[in-house]
Specification:
Blueprint: H1 21-38, H2 47-55, H3 61-66, H4 80-86, H5 92-99, H6 112-121, H7 134-150, E1 183-192, E2 202-208, E3 221-224, H8 230-240, E4 247-248, E5 251-252, H9 253-259, H10 268-276, H11 280-290, H12 304-310, H13 318-323, E6 331-334, E7 345-351, E8 354-357, E9 360-363, H14 367-372, E10 379-385, E11 400-403, H15 410-421, E12 428-434, H16 444-452, E13 458-463, H17 473-479, H18 481-489, E14 493-498, H19 503-518, H20 523-535, E15 539-543
Parallel strand pairs: 11-12, 11-14, 12-13, 14-15
Antiparallel strand pairs: 1-2, 1-10, 2-7, 3-6, 3-10, 4-5, 8-9
Helix pairs in contact: 5-6, 5-7, 8-9, 8-12, 10-11, 17-19, 18-19, 19-20
Length: 544
C-alpha cells in the first residue's frame, strides 16, 4: 500500500524579504496555518507584502527589543511594584528600565532608559548606581540581572565583538563632564538662605570653576563627590573593633570608610555577611534582612552603624566588611546660576538633611559636608552632568512659566539670570513657595529687583505656614488659572523643579484642571493636552 505523504509547504516569504531565517520560518508557518483554515490557494507573497504583514503584528525580535511601548511605567510617582506590573509582559530590557527610579536625574551617568540598556547589553556592570531608587531598586536590578545571566542564549542580547588590541588609548570623556572623570574645584563661598525663625537650613554654595576649566549650560546639574562624617567613621571603626589603619587594597580601613563606601543605608550584602559568621536566631534574622525582609520592623532605619549594633559581638574581617558595602556615590544638585551672569563660577541651593533616629543624629552625607565640614578654599571632586531635556526654549521670545518651591527654585534663578544676560524679550513667570514668607524667601532681593525692572513679569508666592490654611504652589496656580491658560495658549513653556513624589504630581494635576476649565475641554482631553506639551518639549521637569 502506498503511503500518502503530505506535500511540503512552499515558501510563502521570498528570500529577498528583510527577515532572519527564524522570522521567515515563523511567517511561513503562520500563513500556511491561515491557508489551511480557509482552504484558499497558496500564493507566495511579495517582499513588500511580507514586510507590511510583519510590521503589522507578527513577532519581530528586534522591534520588540527596541520599542519600549511608550514606557507607561516611566512615572516617578508610581511605586516599584506597580511599575514592574506594567512592564510584566515586556522584554527584560524594559523590565530593567521599570526598576529604575524614573527620574532621569543623571546620577548614574545615564538616563533610566540608557542605564538599563547598558546593563542588559553588558556595557555597564555596576548595578547599584540608581541612588534615588535606593535598596528597592538595587534588589530588583540584581534579580533581573540574575535572570539575564540564566536566560537562554537565543533570548539573551548578543554580546558585542571584543575590541581588537590597540596601542592607542581609548578616548575618555573630557575632564569634568562625567562621574567617571571628575575634576577638582574650590569652594568660593557659603551663605545661609534662611533667616531667624525658619525650621529649615538651606545654603547657597558657590564653587570656583576658573582653575578647572569647567563650563556648563543653565539646566545642567553639578555632581559632587562627598566624604562621610569623620565622627560616624570613628563610630563604625569602634563598633567593628578593628584597627583604623588595617590595610585594604593599598588604603587603610579609615580611608575606605571615609570616601570609598556608603554608610547609609545598610545594604543586603552586609546582612548576608553577618549571616555567615553568626548562628541560631541571629543567623535567621540576618538572612531575613539580607533577603529584604523586616523581622523587627526597623529595617528602613538601619544604616551601617545601626546594623553592626543590631548584631553586637560580630567581628567580620575588615576587608570582607568593606566589600559588602556599597560604593559611595556622587550627589547631583541643580545649578542655580548662569555662566553668562557669573562667569567662572557655579552656584548651588542645598537643603541640609538632619534627622534623629533611636537617639542618634543622622546626617545627609553631602548636604552636611557643604554645611558643616568645608570652608572657602576647600577642594572637592566635581563634574557637570548635562541636562536630560531640561533647557530654555531656543527662541528667546517664547514665554516661560517656572514652578519651583523650596530648593526647586535653583534652576529658575539660573534661567532668569540667563534670559536677563542675553536680553531675551520673552515673558517670565515664577511660582515659588516655602513655609514662611519672613524667613524662607530664597533670593528675595534678586527676584524683587527682577520684578521691579520688568524682567520677571509675574512672581506668584505660596506660603504653607503663614496662615491656618496651608497654601501650596498648585493652589496659587488654580487661583490664577485663567491667566495661566492664556500664557499656554500663547505658546509658553512650562518648567517644574522639586519633589517628584508629591509636588510635581500635584502641579501636573492642577495644570490638567486649568486646561479643562479655562480651555473648555473634557478631563481626558485636558490630560492629552498636557501629554502633548510633554512630547513637544513644552513641559519639562527636573525632579528628585
Amino acid at each position: 500500500m502506498t503511503q500518502n505523504v503530505p506535500s511540503p509547504i512552499p515558501s510563502l516569504v521570498p528570500e529577498t524579504a528583510p527577515f532572519s531565517e527564524d522570522q521567515r520560518a515563523w511567517l511561513n508557518g503562520f500563513f500556511a496555518g491561515l491557508i489551511a483554515m480557509d482552504g484558499s490557494g497558496i500564493t507566495p507573497l511579495s517582499s513588500d507584502q511580507a514586510a507590511a504583514l510583519m510590521s503589522g503584528g507578527a513577532p519581530n525580535a528586534k522591534a520588540a527589543e527596541d520599542d519600549d511601548g511608550g514606557a507607561p511605567w516611566h512615572d516617578q510617582t508610581l511605586p516599584l511594584a506597580e511599575r514592574m506590573k506594567l512592564a510584566d509582559d515586556k522584554p527584560l530590557r524594559w523590565k530593567m528600565m521599570a526598576a529604575m527610579a524614573q527620574q532621569d536625574c543623571g546620577q548614574c551617568g545615564y538616563d533610566c532608559k540608557n542605564y538599563s540598556g547598558a546593563i542588559v547589553s553588558g556595557k555597564e556592570e555596576r548595578l547599584n548606581l540608581c541612588v534615588p531608587g535606593g535598596k528597592e531598586t538595587a534588589r530588583m536590578v540584581k534579580k533581573l540581572a540574575e535572570e539575564l545571566k540564566s536566560a537562554p542564549a537565543a533570548a539573551a542580547p548578543k554580546a558585542e565583538p571584543a575590541a581588537k588590541p590597540t596601542l592607542t588609548p581609548q578616548p575618555q570623556t573630557p575632564p569634568g563632564t562625567s562621574r567617571d572623570n571628575p575634576v577638582v574645584a574650590k569652594v568660593l563661598s557659603r551663605k545661609l538662605l534662611n533667616k531667624a525663625g525658619s525650621e529649615k537650613e538651606t545654603w547657597h554654595v558657590e564653587f570656583d570653576l576658573s582653575s578647572c576649566g569647567l563650563d556648563y549650560t543653565v539646566g545642567d546639574a553639578f555632581g559632587l563627590f562627598p566624604s562621610n562624617d569623620p565622627a560616624l567613621v570613628d563610630s563604625v571603626i569602634k563598633a567593628l573593633g578593628a584597627p583604623a589603619d588595617f590595610p585594604i587594597g593599598g588604603r587603610t580601613l579609615r580611608q575606605c570608610l571615609t570616601d570609598g563606601v556608603s554608610l547609609s543605608p545598610a545594604p543586603d550584602m552586609l546582612f548576608q555577611l553577618f549571616s555567615y559568621i553568626t548562628g541560631g536566631d541571629r543567623r535567621k534574622k540576618a538572612r531575613a534582612l539580607g533577603a529584604g525582609e523586616d523581622p523587627d520592623g526597623d529595617a528602613p532605619t538601619l544604616d551601617v552603624l545601626a546594623a553592626i549594633e543590631k548584631f553586637p559581638g560580630i567581628r567580620p574581617d575588615p576587608e570582607a566588611f568593606i566589600e559588602a558595602l556599597d560604593p559611595l556615590q556622587p550627589r547631583l544638585y541643580s545649578i542655580a546660576s548662569s555662566p553668562k551672569a557669573n562667569p567662572g563660577a557655579v552656584a548651588l541651593t542645598v537643603d541640609t538633611v538632619r534627622y534623629r533616629i533611636a537617639g542618634r543624629d543622622r546626617l545627609g552625607v553631602c548636604s552636611t559636608l557643604l554645611a558643616d565640614r568645608i570652608a572657602p578654599g576647600a577642594e572637592l571632586k566635581v563634574y557637570v552632568q548635562k541636562a536630560h531635556a531640561f533647557a530654555l526654549p531656543a527662541d528667546p521670545q517664547v514665554p516661560v512659566i517656572m514652578i519651583g518651591p523650596g530648593t526647586g527654585v535653583a534652576p529658575f534663578r539660573a534661567f532668569l539670570q540667563e534670559r536677563q544676560a542675553v536680553k531675551a524679550p520673552g515673558r517670565n513667570w515664577l511660582f515659588f513657595g516655602h513655609q514662611r514668607s519672613n524667613c524662607d524667601f530664597f533670593y528675595e532681593d534678586e527676584f524683587k529687583a527682577m520684578k521691579d525692572c520688568g524682567h520677571l513679569t509675574r512672581l506668584t508666592l505660596a506660603w504653607s505656614r503663614d496662615a491656618a490654611e496651608k497654601i501650596y504652589v498648585q493652589d496659587r496656580m488654580r487661583e490664577v488659572g485663567r491667566d495661566l491658560w492664556t500664557w499656554l495658549a500663547d505658546g509658553a513653556h512650562v518648567y517644574v523643579c522639586g519633589d517628584a513624589k508629591r509636588m510635581a504630581k500635584d502641579v501636573e494635576l492642577a495644570l490638567v484642571d486649568i486646561v479643562a476649565k479655562h480651555g473648555v475641554r473634557s478631563a481626558d482631553d485636558a490630560a492629552a493636552f498636557i501629554g502633548e506639551l510633554k512630547k513637544s518639549g513644552r513641559y519639562q521637569q527636573d525632579v528628585y
